Here is the input.
Amino acid sequence: MGLKEAYLDRVEAQIKEWDADFEKMKAKAQIASAEARIEYYNKMEGLKARSDQFKTEFARVKESSGEAWDELKGGLDKAYNELSSTFSDFKETFHQAIGKFHKDQPSST
Here is the structure.
């Protein structure tokens, strides 16, 4: 396996992980108040749009070869780092908000 294939496999695995996390957060948002759900769904849709854009760029890099691969990889690295940071920040904020929601709920006992 060459460097390009290893790189592409790593990015593809991360995309799958982001997609799975996204679906989990979407399901967890169901327990929040209607107002909070609207806010988080809007933010999730923005994040999903950025993720879809990244996937399109990834597909272009995956199909490239030679000099084009070297040029496109740099742009993909930058987009990857930005999306990774944005996703991590959103995920942390989301989990804090969901955790606060659970703390604010009256005990059923």
Notes: The chain has three helices and no strands.
